[in-house]
Design brief:
Blueprint: H1 2-9, E1 15-16, E2 25-30, H2 44-52, E3 62-66, E4 72-78, H3 92-99, E5 109-112, H4 119-129, E6 146-148, H5 155-173, H6 181-194, E7 198-203, H7 206-209, H8 213-219, E8 227-233, E9 240-245, E10 247-251, H9 260-263, H10 271-285, E11 291-301, E12 313-314, E13 322-323, H11 331-343, E14 349-354, H12 358-364, E15 370-373, H13 376-388, E16 394-395, E17 413-414, H14 423-432, E18 440-445, E19 449-450, E20 460-461, H15 466-477
Helix pairs in contact: 1-5, 3-4, 4-5, 5-10, 8-11, 10-15, 11-14, 13-15
The structure holds ligand BES, manganese (II) ion and zinc ion.
Amino acid sequence: MSDLFQRSTRALDAFLPASSRKRTIPITFARVGAERSELSALTSAERTFLKSSEFGFARGEIALLPDEKGDVARVVAGIGKAEKNALETLSGGDLFAVCALANRLPDGDYHIDAELTEPTLAATAWALSSYRFDAYRNEAPGKSARLRLDKLADRPTAEALAQSIFLGRDLINTPANDLGPEELEQAARALADTFDASCEVTIGDALLDKNFPLIHAVGRASTRPPRLIDFSWGEPDHPKVTLVGKGVVFDTGGLNIKPGNSMMLMKKDMGGAAATLATARLIMETGLPVRLRVLIPAVENAVAGNAFRPGDVLPSHAGITVEIGNTDAEGRLVLADALSLADGDEPDLVISLATLTGSARVALGPDLPAFYATSDDVAAAMEKSAHDVHDPFWRMPFWDGYEGTLKSPVADVCHISTGPFAGSITAALFLRRFVKHAATYAHLDMYGWTPSAKPGRPAGGEAQCARAIHAYLSERYGRGASR
Ligand code: BES
Ligand code: MN
Ligand code: ZN
């Protein structure tokens, strides 16, 4: 399984250096209604071809223009409706979307025929679109189109961004038969080792000895023992940032078993852990001056005679007793124990990432993680970073008024609400109870999956929020995000 980690650390073949002498095919971007002057790099035959083939310059539309031998001489890519022609005017999501072309062009070497406002973001979009998950295919992987980097692009950052996201995607895409709690641990250890982070893992019954009863209860019915992965990196006197990722390698729902359709994609229920590892990798690779701690409860929510049950009352790491309302709400249980451990250090910032509720998807769909934060200032800055790097999420409230729905007749708290409403909010409120000493607590309820391909996001696993969090931390603690 450390193969998985190796795979994503191999050299990225999406880029040629800016200094490369290789002949590269120009990509000309043009808007709807492009004027003749804006297409001045094209020959008159090329312009005529665009016209006669009714090329519309819509966003995503591509024309391959041949030379007299029939080789591709130029690519024209539409940018849709824009005020001025030029890529110079595009930034953020618009720039990201039009530059995510690697998977849409034939094998070859290209360059973008324009000055870019955010060359690193453009390069990142290109690289992210080149991802393929071919670990289980017998056919040889195809080659991908390569981009000659803009001379102002920050190649190491673009590569770190792409490789970190690839690690997250690979972890999510790997099926649960090959990725159990142990393999997730191995991936985390491989990452920790690469950056000389110290790593400690508590496994199986040792979870009871060390007082992580909820992680143990959720994971104990699996033949693959549950564990808590805990690694730390960076100078101890730097500001403490702790990431907590839900690592449910497969979610059957437990005794409250999921129907077949709902279970189909549940290999991705470790998407929070995958996004956490992707974020951690980015933080370490770009050397942000923070004291990073990563906590991943890695469990399989399985069905067996020793499984935890609805109605059980369980102790927790924090000492709060929890009544189990539904064994399918397992994510918040394993996170609760990890969050109260995180809270003990009184960090500057604790962020949890989790494929936590179906309700968040009903509210916001697959592309927009639901975002919660105890500080309005931190929330605003995080939303801005998310928007800037086109890795969006949307804020929802920790609505105190719904706390009452978590009342239990027998225990300190019930982990699910009694009613059908506000499922993502009540899950977030449950988690917040376990964070008391961190300066700020932020929580992301994500999907971890792209159902159908979008620019820079091939269908399948997605380490949502990793680039956004890294950009935010770079603004707050580092030298600013590189775009
Ligand atoms: N992993 C699921 C949440 C999920 C389901 C995320 C589908 C993305 C897509 C989580 O463990 C779960 O089953 N949550 C339940 C909670 C309910 C029982 C209170 C849910 O959302 O239905
Ligand atoms: Mn579940
Ligand atoms: Zn789950």
